[in-house]
Amino acid sequence: MSKEPDRIFAQPMAQVPDFAFNEDVVRVFPDMIKRSVPGYPTIVENLGVLAAQFAQPHSVLYDLGASLGAVTQALRRHVRTDGCRVIAVDNSAAMVERCREYLNGQDSMFQELLPVEVIEADILALDFKPASVVALNFTLQFIAPEQRLALLGRIRQALLPGGALILSEKLRFNDADEHALLTDLHVAFKRANGYSELEIAQKRSAIENVMKPDSLEEHRERLLAAGFSKVVPWFQCLNFASLIALP
Ligand SMILES: C[S@@+](CC[C@H](N)C(=O)[O-])C[C@H]1O[C@@H](n2cnc3c(N)ncnc32)[C@H](O)[C@@H]1O
Ligand SMILES: O=C(O)C(=O)C[C@]1(C(=O)O)C=C[C@@H](O)C=C1
């Protein structure tokens, strides 16, 4: 993975453009996500461990909004179930191109990995195959809020008995004090990871129009409305969490 440091928001910008998963972001993405999302390495590695418990023989494992394929690589490190294959999907051409390179690297270093296909597509237009594991790792928050329920409904329909959706998201909190505290602590996390006040402020304004976090309660209610039977949070670090949703 690229070691290039994220300096995207380091210089003052006259007008901060909306955040996009373009070539510039792709180049620094491993550094950006690790320094921005508390618990990210733990979530990614354990997503593989969890997936191994839900993977059903001869089924598909989806990594939706795969970016550079960190989750796909974790699935391939941990899932040993017969006949499984991974489908990684992203609608950023720059991400998909680099993701394929990284997965080729993984193929050349390890044997007997699950087969993987990387597709450049909009997950809202995807024709889902029967799947035992679906990972949405910090992707749903970039989908327009009015499209989220329909997408989760289609994922639920595709899920096989014994499978699971694993959903990781930045959270907002209905209690104003809780929201303020965890937001401040997230800023402290970013500062401790070397981001300046300017970088933190410019990134905040870049993502505010394109990334709309929900509360844990909203996630739970929407997942149940989409037909999931049980929602179990398995990880939270500050204002970032990951949930297991069972069909
Ligand atoms: C925060 S990143 C996901 C990080 C990644 N899952 C990981 O764990 O490293 C969100 C990704 O979702 C992708 N994305 C956003 N909307 C999408 C859509 N409608 N269809 C497919 N991919 C989408 C973006 O291009 C971006 O790569
Ligand atoms: O909240 C932030 O500041 C973030 O940077 C979050 C977040 C995310 O959750 O996906 C936003 C964009 C980048 O992909 C990396 C991290």
UniProtKB/TrEMBL annotation:
InterPro entries from the UniProt entry: CmoA, Methyltransf_25, SAM-dependent_MTases_sf
Limits of the Methyltransferase domain: 63-163
Reaction catalyzed: prephenate + S-adenosyl-L-methionine = carboxy-S-adenosyl-L-methionine + 3-phenylpyruvate + H2O
Entries under CDD domains matching the protein: AdoMet_MTases
UniProt keyword Transferase present: yes
Residues involved in S-adenosyl-L-methionine binding: 40, 65-67, 90-91, 122-123, 137, 204
NCBIfam families with a match to the protein in the record: carboxy-S-adenosyl-L-methionine synthase CmoA, PRK15451.1
Oligomer status and interactors: Homodimer.
Family affiliation: Belongs to the class I-like SAM-binding methyltransferase superfamily. Cx-SAM synthase family.
UniProt name for this protein: Carboxy-S-adenosyl-L-methionine synthase
This protein's encoding gene: cmoA
